[in-house]
Specification:
About 40% of the residues lie in helices and about 20% in strands. The chain has helices at about 10-15, 20-25, 25-45, 45-60, 65-70, 75-90, 130-140, 155-170, 185-195, 210-220, 240-255, 270-285, 295-300, 330-340, 355-365; strands spanning about 100-105, 110-115, 120-125, 145-150, 180, 200-205, 230-235, 260-270, 290, 305-310, 325-330, 345-350, 370, 390-395, 400, 410-415. Strands 10-9-11-8-7-12-13 form a seven-stranded parallel β-sheet, sandwiched between helices. Strand 3, helix 7 (about 130-140) and strand 4 form a beta-alpha-beta unit. The radius of gyration is 24 Å and the shape is globular.
């Protein structure tokens, strides 16, 4: 853990100084860090929970919503899950051992591309202290250093987690400065980080729209944004409606406070009369409230608890809570047009048995993750076999969707000759 007296520039400089060591580290050494970090998390469960309790108490006093308090919470079950995720990351192939696009030119030169670390990552995040562990794990596994700027609401938890990560780096024979923690609550610390284009190679913000806009506006460093999910499922008339109910329930209810939770259900008119009331009955039993367009609202018995007419901004809202929008459309074309108009480009899907329609939907909808007959909750690094993720990018350049190991690397050309000269 870094002393509060250190400036952000000093922390970033020390992280930059660690880059040559990280580039020369072995895959075994980086995996040793992951296993040491997992052991540290398990050994320090009680201390982590105690630190997190301070953050939760301060958050409740500050008026954080139940959704934000849930994101902030670390209990023993979540700590053990974090440790298990580290084991999964350690089991993944070493990304820096990858050689690809190997070929020999007619003149005998041997050429390939080799994966390399990006360098120093600046990660700015809010509320969720588990992000500290995700970033630490993925950064070191890929040979990157990182400057971590967590939100003030999680500062006690982050201090504890980054102290454990520093100890794990020492155990693995790597410099603790490779994971620099900005131990400050002032907004000026974030602004200072965004100006360090001579030390930091990439900024990754994880948080709300305000944080992303601030980073894009103020950063001198390339920024990858994403993680804001206004997610849709279109229920076609040709869907298996009984099974569709289970998908919708999972996408909305399993963990409503995350970015890949469902925000809007769009229903074909031919299925709506029977299906919409079933959705309201099933999800309403779990406390879900509904924002219905005029046609959907007309299908619900008057006075049904938790059902109101949708307002002008409701289909442009990431709920992060037990609220679900419902809209009825005449056909798939209207459904896709609605998604294009209102989606954040995170995760959108279709439920249908019509293969040609599904293929058309998958080709047209340009979100980072597009689904056919599956819950949007799978847009997650661990669920997609990446081990974990540092963010979910909704941009089109460099990385898109969950950013796992490969997305935290670049590559260089390697050319091998036999004292070749160009003629």
């Amino acid at each position: 853990m870094n002393a509060p007296s250190q400036s952000v520039r000093e922390l970033a400089q020390r992280a930059r100084d660690s880059v040559p060591t990280l580039r020369q580290s072995t895959g075994e050494q980086r995996n040793l860090f992951l296993s040491a970090l997992a052991r540290g998390l398990r050994a320090e469960r009680a201390a982590i929970v105690a630190a997190n309790a301070i953050d939760l108490a301060n958050g409740a006093e500050a008026g954080l919503s139940p959704a934000l308090l849930d994101r902030l919470r670390l209990d023993e079950k979540r700590i053990d899950a974090m440790a298990e995720d580290l084991a999964q990351i350690a089991a993944l192939p070493d990304p820096l051992a990858q050689r690809f696009e190997l070929r020999e030119l007619p003149n005998g030169l041997l050429i390939h591309k080799r994966r390399v670390p990006i360098g120093v990552l600046g990660v700015i995040y809010e509320s969720r202290p588990n992000v500290s562990v995700d970033v630490a794990a993925l950064a070191i596994k890929t040979g990157n250093a990182a400057v971590l700027r967590g939100g003030k609401e999680a500062i006690a938890s982050n201090r504890m987690l980054l102290r454990i990560a520093a100890d794990a780096l020492l155990t693995a024979g790597m410099p603790p400065a490779a994971l620099a923690f900005v131990d400050a609550v002032e907004r000026s610390a974030t602004l200072e980080l965004l100006q360090l284009d001579d030390l930091v190679d990439l900024i990754i913000p994880r948080g709300g729209a305000g944080l992303h806009a601030f980073c894009r506006r103020e950063s001198r460093i390339p920024v990858i944004t994403g993680g804001i999910g206004i997610c849709h499922l279109y229920i076609d008339a040709a869907a298996d409606l009984d099974r569709a109910l289970g998908v919708i329930h999972n996408a909305k209810v399993q963990r409503p406070t995350v970015c890949n939770a469902l925000d809007t259900v769009i229903v074909h008119r031919d299925a709506a009369m029977d299906f919409v009331p079933r959705v309201v009955s099933l999800l309403g039993a779990d406390g879900v409230e509904f924002r219905c367009d005029e046609r959907a609202f007309a299908l619900i018995p008057p006075g049904t608890a938790g059902v109101i007419a949708a307002g002008p901004d409701d289909f442009d809202t990431e709920w992060l809570s037990l609220i679900l929008g419902i809209r009825i459309v005449d056909d798939a074309e209207q459904a896709m047009a609605h998604i294009e108009a209102h989606s954040s480009g995170h995760s959108d899907g279709i439920l249908t048995e019509d293969v040609s329609l599904a293929e058309r939907f998958l080709a047209r909808i340009d979100s980072a993750a597009v689904y056919w007959n599956a819950s949007t909750r799978f847009t997650d690094g661990a669920e997609l076999g990446l081990g974990a993720e540092v963010a979910v990018s909704t941009q089109r350049l460099h990385a898109r969707g969950p950013m796992g190991l490969t997305e935290l690397t670049s590559y260089k050309w390697v050319i091998e000759g036999d004292y070749h000269v160009r003629t």
